[in-house]
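Hi, here's the filled form for the chain we discussed.

Project: internal
Contact: R.S.
Residues: 162
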Amino acid sequence: MSQDIVQEIAFFLHSIFIGLVITFAYDWLLIFRKLFAHGRVLVSVEDFFYWFVCGIGVFYMLYRENNGVLRWFAVVGAALGMLFYKATVKNWFVNIMSTCIHKIMWFLFRVIQIVLKPAKCLFFGTRRFVRFVARKLKKVKEFIKKRLTGCIKTIRIILCKQ
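And the returned structure, exactly as it came back:
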């Protein structure tokens, strides 16, 4: 084969690969969205930045491989890569990965809860003790205030008699 044909085939295969990568990256974005709830605005912003980065990647591939000239078979190759990925992987990748990551996160949170349980008990126990001491100090303050008020009244009475 001639060198030009080999370069064109390599360019076509690279465009198929970029289509696979773009779809794979979007599946990770879908996994992230499945794990953490998003509103419409945030989804739109994420999509904008995703397609902006993908556009830069495709432009870089076109610039590097074909001097920035858009060739329709590159677009067809990227579309074939996307279709091949979706035909083979479908949505099971997103479902399995989001379920696995969700289970791992649940397990980690449970471990953190178990590890931090003594600290939690210590914190709430200390808080209960501080409240108990504060209530007792308030009663002591009220008792001292009553005693001092009584002493002041007694001193006034004594001073007024003299």
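Let me know if anything looks off before we file it.
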